[in-house]
Amino acid sequence: MAKKLDPCRLRNFYAPVHITTLSNGLRVVTEESNSPLFCTSLFTKTGPRFETENNNGLAYFVEHLAYQGFTSMNSYALQDVIRRGGTKMSAFTARDHQVFSAVGLKESLKLNISLLAQIICQIDLTETMIESQKQKMCFEAIENDNNSRMVMFDYLHQTAFQGTPLAQTVMGLSSNFCRFDIRDICSYFYHNYRPHRMLLATSGGVSHGAVVEYAENYFSVVKESDTKVINYGPKRYTGSSIVYRNDALPVAHVAIAVEAPGYNSPEYLPLLLATCLNDSWERTQGGSDRHGSFLARASSTSSLCEKFESFYIAYHDVGLWGVYFVGTNDLDDMVYNIQKDWMNTCTSIQKTDLERASQVLKMKLAKNIEGVVKSSYDIGLQMMYTSSRRSLSEIYQDLSSITVERLRDVTFKYLYDKCPVVAAVGPIETLPDYNGIRSGMYWLRL
């Protein structure tokens, strides 16, 4: 019989986090370990949530420019420096944050921090480079339009948060990025890449003192802003649907979700636990049909879909909680089983289901900090959203304190008789209309 993880024993394997605020307001967070590698990530509060309809896509455009050269070196010289230093650079833009990361041996700490600082201070903004990236983004936009899953999740945000910045896509409209110029980019840098909106998160075999020293040297040129108020904009949720029927596609991509609290909410962890009640399943995975999840059993025995996965997209103060699935002919049956399982969770969840989901979530949380790259991202995300870093043992303790009654109450609050959002792309002839899906969000009970 497998032994349960003891949160007290986890403390011995969890390095403490050191936090320092530089003279200009930039926060530096470091988790030291015995790893020969380290990962430094520069988090910024930028993205579609902080953009207008006219400049939507600028953060993603900056991501494209990030590693194309600086004023002190062209792209060829930059690539040579990265190769000689054994560094791997990457970038990622979400709807409410952007991350620039550098991974390497501890000997390259000074180089990596200097490269991240130059993205903010010395990025190449020549007309030639800007026009070159516009061409690349045009081709990328075409590729994204052919990605049904990505299009569907963009639709999900557009219908859930219609009329708000969260409805905007990360890439933005082609009509936007085709007219971006140096003045637009410089203005965006001035207002968004400021110390109070940035965070330097490091995990690996480097000391906190060294990280602070190099960060102070290279980021000191980034001046503190006069105003430190961050406007997140409205977060209005609207129960609605966007569906795009295209019978030429081989499968349909469908998502059904409800409004959920943000990362800062005390109800975040119970709802995250609720996603693990069904977790995910796909037809190609091995094993029998004896799944612990009701939805996985129904999908595998009745061939309801090709795959499904539960998701919880949490932002600073709002989120979307639901199920995404890929199917063909039985979309109505799949939606029925999803809602049946949701109503069971709201009203009659059992202790065995809670224990199973808890073990699944513990494994996922442990995997989220596996290695310096994931650990660095976890540090940055927690610090950006909560201004603190909770250890795995602390989260496990909170997870163990969630009772069946607590989980039932939270899911009832956010699921039962709530207006869902629905997004679908592909051959969706058998998908129920919105009114039919809405009526499945409650049971008539005596």
Q: What would you note in describing this structure?
A:
By secondary structure, the protein is of the alpha+beta class. It is built from 17 helices and twelve strands. The chain has helices at residues 7-10, 58-65, 75-84, 109-121, 127-145, 148-160, 174-177, 182-192, 208-219, 268-275, 294-302, 331-348, 351-367, 371-386, 392-400, 404-415, 434-439, and strands spanning 17-21, 27-32, 37-44, 88-93, 98-105, 198-204, 241-245, 252-260, 280-282, 307-314, 319-327, 421-426. The protein has a six-stranded mixed sheet with strand order 1-2-6-3-5-4, with helices on both faces. Strands 7-12-8-11-10-9 form a six-stranded mixed sheet, sandwiched between helices. Strand 1 (17-21) and strand 2 (27-32) form a beta hairpin. Helix 13 (351-367) runs antiparallel to helix 15. The longest helix is centred in the N-terminal third of the chain and has 19 residues, at 127-145. The protein starts with 6 loop residues before the first helix and ends in a 7-residue tail after the last helix.
Can you tag this structure with a few keywords?
six-stranded mixed sheet, alpha+beta, single chain, 446 residues, protease, Pept_M16_N
Radius of gyration, CA atoms, in whole angstroms: 23 Å
Proportion of residues in helical segments: 40-55%
State the separation between the terminal residues, measured CA to CA.
Answer: 42 Å
Fraction of residues in β-strands: 15-25%
Number of helices: 17
